[in-house]
């Protein structure tokens, strides 16, 4: 029987049954009554959906993790840290979000679709099913489909999503990132045909959609953290509002939250490295946290700048000459191709 230790994956030989029972009793985490009820409900739901089954004498065993999410609810996951360390990494490249988002510009009609628990629509390789075993108060269970939190899922889901649409001219009418899909049409009268083509692919591969997260036949919408429209790519207003509503950081952790939110808006902030330099100085210092007047001024100026963020669009080089302006500074470099009119 294999089991995790502080430094490596250990193995017990001899009386496997006794060793397994001792290990299971020692590793099982204790939860408050409220969280036990959440776990019980989640396991019942997974069993009804035919996602998990009982496991018998598994060689691998993981624990349940319960994390809070919005709306005073709880998310139940399995901690596959040790299994992930032992599994070879999938080298399949993840799609570039910037390139996908750029390709949605200039389209008259868009439809946004989301796969229903996309990772649960990929079946596990039968001999590996019991490697996903986890422990609960009800007993031991394992996943019959790809579980959330399993590193292999990161390569398999985008691979499956892209291969499902490779058989068509998918780059002309469809964009896929993991379980998020977008059908796009340069001309509105072609959109129904493009949707029929996408649905045919999904039906052929038995991919199910989440109707509550699908929007069809609109001129704009949120996709991969950006607001995509016919005019171009705009910053997500929710991200702008979240940063503007922030108070001045009072500790290192809040500075890290600030720089993280700015990083998400990096494409829309000219000379972002210069604008955020006072924040990075604080993170580099090992001394006591100090929010200086320079940091406060930079924070205020950043909010003012984001009050009217720029619009990004794909250049139409066939219609006009393209000029690229490059800015070189001591600490960074950036470039832009501004459009007049």
From TrEMBL:
<dbReference type="InterPro" id="IPR053134">
    <property type="entry name" value="RNA-dir_DNA_polymerase"/>
</dbReference>
<protein>
    <recommendedName>
        <fullName>Reverse transcriptase domain-containing protein</fullName>
    </recommendedName>
</protein>
<dbReference type="InterPro" id="IPR000477">
    <property type="entry name" value="RT_dom"/>
</dbReference>
<dbReference type="InterPro" id="IPR043128">
    <property type="entry name" value="Rev_trsase/Diguanyl_cyclase"/>
</dbReference>
<feature type="domain" description="Reverse transcriptase">
    <location>
        <begin position="68"/>
        <end position="226"/>
    </location>
</feature>
<dbReference type="InterPro" id="IPR043502">
    <property type="entry name" value="DNA/RNA_pol_sf"/>
</dbReference>
<dbReference type="Pfam" id="PF00078">
    <property type="entry name" value="RVT_1"/>
</dbReference>
